[in-house]
Amino acid sequence: MTTFKNIVGIKIKHLSADPPAPTVGQVWYNTTTKVVKGAINGFGTWASGGNLNTGRKHITLAGTQTAAIVAGGYLTSPDAVTAVSEEYNGSSWSEGNNLNVGRIYHSTFGIQTAAVLVGGLTLGPTSYRNLSESYNGTSWSEGNNLNTSRHNAGMSFGIQTAGIVASGDTPPFTVNVESYDGTSYTEIANVNTGRQFGAAAGVSTAGLIYSGSTTANIANTETWNGTAWTEVNDVNTARYFGAGGGVSTLAILAGGSSNISTDNGKIANTEQWNGTSWTEVNNLATARVRFGGDGTGTANVAAGGFNGTADLTATEEWTKALGTVSFDID
After folding, report:
1. What is the pTM of this model?
2. Residues 258, 263, 264, 269: is their CA dihedral positive or negative?
């Protein structure tokens, strides 16, 4: 007869009460209620956080729910690109030292005290950039450039010394991917579908990119194993310029525009990735597009963007708790 021990290699623990902090996949027998239980990933909810000091769109964000950074972007009024940089402590945003080059449609990865902002677009005249700047928790410093100038807005992941910058618009849409080792960028394996304005999650050896746009919004998800990209299950709602964040087995996609021709197609839809497929979960409180987001998948932050009429300062925090299920025993 097949038993739990035969399958997993350990016996089910007998406990008089449910454990206070179980891990995903943990199974136990509650001797008080006489029920076999297990811990699973639950679904999260969004709650209000502190507002940005400068409302803006065309931004990306790096870090965690309690330590994030956002820089650059576009001000609808007075119709200008900004170099302003702000840090989040889980409650409020504080202005710090500016980028060296203000830009939009850039990509950001890393953590608050060790971030990289790369690529993007400058205006007057319009120029696709290969510029890369690193942040040390105090100031931004120019580093070695990307090999391919692009705007890719959100499709990067990893840490300051081991990052991935994927796809984007050069123009046209490029499949090129570059890895960053903290000093320089190196061309690596291409994505299957070139795109812009997508979202990403993960580390340099295990990540994913998803959603975005080409000549239309796309729902494609691709996973990265450190060597190659693989097409997997699509997001449920194709969109551009939503925000992501998380790891390769637990990520989210929130907001964006479901209409390729206008930001008035803004949505609040949030989806959760479990390593295999996407599931619709609780929506953002404020539908938005062209905003920044990042986090762990269980605790994320989203800030700024555009609601179809005005630039936003609003910040929202995503928190996902564990769920508990009971098992029937024949």
Report:
1. 0.87
2. positive
